[in-house]
Amino acid sequence: MNDKLTVQEAASVEETLERMLTRLSGIVPEFEIAAKAELAFKVNQLKRECNAVILGHNYMEPALYHSIPDHVGDSLGLSRISAETNADVIVFCGVSFMAETAKVLNPDKTVLCPVEKAGCSLADGITADDVLQLKEDYPNAPVITYVNTSAEVKAVSDYCCTSGNAKGVVKHLLDAGHEHILFLPDEFLARNTADELGIAYVHGADGERPSPGEPTVIGWRAHCEVHELFTVEDVQSVRTQFPDAVILAHPECSPEVIALADVSGSTAAMVNYVRDVDASHYLLLTECSMGDNLAAEFPERDILRLCSLQCQYMNLITLEDTLHSLQKLQFKIELPAEIIARARVPIDRMLAIA
User: Fold this and answer.
1) Which fold, 3-119+314-328?
2) Residue extent(s) of CATH 3.40.50.10800 domains in the chain
3) 256-309, pLDDT tens digit by residue?
4) What region, left, alpha or beta, does residue 231 occupy, with left being phi > 0 and alpha being psi -120 to 50 degrees?
5) Is 215:200 a contact under the CB 8 Å cutoff?
6) What is the DSSP letter of 331?
7) How far apart are CA 3 and CA 254, in angstroms?
8) Residues in contact with 202: Cβ distance below 8 Å, sequence separation at least 6, in sequence order
9) Is 252 within 8 Å of 163 (Cβ atoms)?
10) Fold designation for 123-224
């Protein structure tokens, strides 16, 4: 792994501070790093005592992201890791639906979310009853639900997907002979996936009917409250200021924005691109903490940190809350056994697709 591991193994607060300063200088103010180093050292000590593993989403604040997670990544990568861990305690530094997914995959383990209510506009944008109604309206269409949904919604679904494998899951169902596919709840991800596959899209939320014989994605009306704010004008402004910049857009952005970007992909795909592809500048159209994290991880790359859009829920997760969560084993994810059993099916189906 990278220097995050050496920070975890630091022998003292002073050594932790030194290594965090090396990684985060110019990204996080030094006074803030000094305040966070003691917290990071305590978390890393405590997780060893508890046999805990800490999973950190790419949207975590830099001082947390670069100090305490054992694994970092996107929803798909962290889901796979959570399914394989031997730890007794899983601390998911991400929003609640991610911790719920880890609990579904590890029903006998203690799964913690560092804050009690770390929501998501997408997860709040659809209910299990909504899905059941759509299944009645479109009885022959299998249901794919984005991982950004509650366990109750997953429990009435056929497959899950992430932004990293949405195309693969839809294609899997098309290849299996399914003509019409319900893809919920993110309208933009559904539309962008349909566009990428060259198939039709209709709004299930409006009761639109797909044409017989035509492969079609049937979508919903929910949006990510961060990604929907990126505009065509934002892209055009960057093109004017930095004509040689590579613009990477998350597929939860609108199709109009995706059409103007150079690359569309999950946060893991963005990390891989910045790591592997040389460019004069890189701009990420996603939650802005990720730009800071990549600027720290790849100091040789010029990440344009022009974004001011932050997820109010991801930003609830702090080093302080993570320490308190471990100290008190608080904010455990608890789900009914029936929900765990039924939600496991679409998640396992997703993980089984290459």
Assistant:
1) Rossmann fold (3.40.50)
2) 3-119+314-328, 123-224, 227-297
3) 999 999 999 999 999 999 999 999 999 999 999 999 999 999 999 999 988 788
4) beta
5) yes
6) S
7) 35
8) 208, 209, 210, 216, 217, 218, 219
9) yes
10) Rossmann fold (3.40.50)
